[in-house]
């Protein structure tokens, strides 16, 4: 069965079975999902791990009769001491033997993969849109500002120079916005050893300096988390953007004296980002007790220029997602009134 050991690298659940559903090989992902050892799985009747065994037997008969190249169906996978897992089953016969490969993709994992692929495509689209739009704005902006300055030099009336000052001021404001849009794509990715708790402590000191009264910052750290390779300044900016947004959303609670932001770090195991499986990953939660993300922007919260408050630039979370994706991770959000949880996931060595 050594030829099947490469299946251990897959995030999907894989079993290699014979025509009578006897298991010849089980990959590590399936072992984790079922909650039983590989030694126990091998040699067992694989149909019995499904709530409806007849579906697999029927699929195996069709595979032996060459009735299809690959058969797909949905099923429920029984797990040791846990609720049944909805999976999408793919049954394929190997070309070199009568062994049959049964691949199972958890429906939750499939949904997550689809969401992550959409986020990655969205981030790439946003990146191209931002760069193109910023350059299109920047080119004429210098001309407008220069023309306003020349016009101001020709004017003798102080009242009229107020208008040119408005033009210059607004041109400078737009220039600043353009520079912020382009910043993450200009700065090189500086990699070094990062201690995530040093990042959290730096952000904690910054937000407490800005909100010294009415805000409590709770630290819930797993101190066993190892250092990893990353861009420390980018990660500080990422956590700061999220925490700062949380504090602004907590304005009423801070005024009432019961605003709370929690930094929580954990290690998660056997997690999949996109289509790649990682043995370990960092989970950093930034949790606040504010009103929650408005329903109107929940699906667009990482889009550029989308903000849930008046006067917001809508760039903080966009930049945070960009920086985390440069670390091969992603940011997820779970929000209900009274509790918003931004979860940063980054692979660990």
Brief sketch in words of this structure:
The protein is of the alpha+beta class and 349 residues long. Helices cover 43% and strands 27% of the residues. It contains 9 helices and 12 strands.
What share of residues is helical?
40-55%
The largest sheet is: 5 strands, antiparallel
Mean pLDDT over all positions: 83
Low-confidence stretches: none
Number of helices: 9
User: What is the number of strand segments?
Assistant: 12
Terminal Cα separation, in Å? Answer: 29 Å
In the CATH hierarchy, the architecture of the largest domain is 2-Layer Sandwich
String of helices and strands: EEHHHEEEHHEHEEHHEEHEE
Overall tally of domains = 3
What does this protein look like?
It is a single chain. The model has no long low-confidence stretch (mean pLDDT 83). Helix content is 43%, strand content 27%. The chain folds into three domains: 2-106, PAS domain (Beta-Lactamase, 2-Layer Sandwich), CATH 3.30.450.20; 112-186; 192-347, Histidine kinase-like ATPase, C-terminal domain (Heat Shock Protein 90, 2-Layer Sandwich), CATH 3.30.565. It starts with 12 loop residues before the first strand and ends with a strand. The chain is an alpha+beta fold. It has nine helices and twelve strands. A five-stranded antiparallel beta sheet has the order 2-1-5-4-3. It has a five-stranded mixed beta sheet with strand order 7-9-10-12-11. A hairpin with a 2-residue loop joins strand 3 (70-79) and strand 4 (82-93). The relative contact order is 0.09.
């Amino acid at each position: 069965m050594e030829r099947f050991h490469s299946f251990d690298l897959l995030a999907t659940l894989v079993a290699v079975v014979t025509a009578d559903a006897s298991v010849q090989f089980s990959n590590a992902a399936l072992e984790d999902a079922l909650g039983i050892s590989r030694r126990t799985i091998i040699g067992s009747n694989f149909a019995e791990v499904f709530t409806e065994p007849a579906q697999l037997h029927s699929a195996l008969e069709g595979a032996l009769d060459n009735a299809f190249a690959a058969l797909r169906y949905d099923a429920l996978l029984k797990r040791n001491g846990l609720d049944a897992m909805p999976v999408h089953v793919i049954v394929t016969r190997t070309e070199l033997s009568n062994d049959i490969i049964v691949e199972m993709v958890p429906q939750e994992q499939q949904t997550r993969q689809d969401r992550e692929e959409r986020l990655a495509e969205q981030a790439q689209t946003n990146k191209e849109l931002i760069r193109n739009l910023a350059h299109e704005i920047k080119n004429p902006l210098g001309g407008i500002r220069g023309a306003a300055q020349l016009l101001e030099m020709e004017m003798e009336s102080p009242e009229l120079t107020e208008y040119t000052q408005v033009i210059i001021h607004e041109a400078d404001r737009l220039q600043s916005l353009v520079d912020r849009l382009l910043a993450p794509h200009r700065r090189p990715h500086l990699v070094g050893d990062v201690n995530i708790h040093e990042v959290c402590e730096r952000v904690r000191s910054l937000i407490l300096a800005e909100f010294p009264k009415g805000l409590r910052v709770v630290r819930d750290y797993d101190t066993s988390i190892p250092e990893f390779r990353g861009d420390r300044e980018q990660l500080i900016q990422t956590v700061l953007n999220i925490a700062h947004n949380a504090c602004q959303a907590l304005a009423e609670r801070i005024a009432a004296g019961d605003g709370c932001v929690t930094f929580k770090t954990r290690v998660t195991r056997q997690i999949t980002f996109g289509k790649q499986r990682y043995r370990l990953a960092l989970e950093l939660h930034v949790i606040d007790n504010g009103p929650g993300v408005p329903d109107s922007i929940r699906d667009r919260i990482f889009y550029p220029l989308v903000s849930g408050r008046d006067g917001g630039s809508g760039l903080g979370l966009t930049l945070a997602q960009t920086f985390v994706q440069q670390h091969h991770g992603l940011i997820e959000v779970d929000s209900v009134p009274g509790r918003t949880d931004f979860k940063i996931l980054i692979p660990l060595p």
